[in-house]
Amino acid sequence: MSKKVTTDHGEIIHFAGRHHLFPVARKDDPTRVRLTSREDLSDEETRVGWPAYFRPFIDRRLVFLYDEASGQAVSRAEADASPAEGPAGPAGEASTAPQQSRRDLQG
Q1: Which of 58, 62, 29 is nearest to 46 (CA)?
Q2: 92-101 pLDDT, tens per residue?
Q3: Which residues is 46 bridged to in the sheet?
Q4: Count of beta carbons in the 10 Å neighbourhood of residue 97
Q5: How many angstroms separate the Cα of 64 from the Cα of each of 28, 49, 106?
Q6: Residue 51: is its pLDDT beyond 70?
Q7: pLDDT tens, 27-47?
Q8: Total-model pTM
Q9: Closest by CA position to 96, among listed 56, 59, 61, 67
Q10: Which long-range contacts (CB under 8 A, 24 or more apart) does 34-40 make?
């Protein structure tokens, strides 16, 4: 299954919802964010809202690399090194690639 790359906040939120995940940040470093489930939440993490989750995407120009089984926030260089479909969706400053339609991403 090929991986996809996106900066579209709505697409990431829908991915999280489909997989029953929520955003968390490390207690000692709120810029280290990830999506997790109740079972995988560690003592060093705390739940955060979506704005706090997306702030590092904008500040550090992160992208969300995923397939239908899992996903993670990575730098654009890490995403470029991974076999993935092209970037998708606008997410403010974080997206520098040309936009693609949702149909292109699902195909």
Answers
A1: 29
A2: 434 444 333 3
A3: 25
A4: 15
A5: 22, 17, 16
A6: yes
A7: 999 888 989 999 989 999 999
A8: 0.68
A9: 61
A10: 34/72, 34/73, 35/71, 35/72
Residues 6 or more apart whose Cβ sits within 8 Å of residue 17: none
Q: Which two tokens stand for residue 28?
A: 């000692």
- Supply 106's token pair: 């699902």
Tokens of 8: 């579209």
Q: Is the pLDDT of residue 105 over 50?
A: no
Nearest to 19 by CA among 46, 40, 47: 40
Q: What's the token pair of residue 58?
A: 């904008």
Query: What single string gives the DSSP state of each residue in the chain?
Result: --BEEE--HHHHHHHHHHTT-EEEEETTEEEEEEEE-GGG--TTEEE--HHHHHHHHHHTTEEEEE-SS-EEEEEHHHHHHS-BPPP-S-BTBT--SPP--HHHHH-
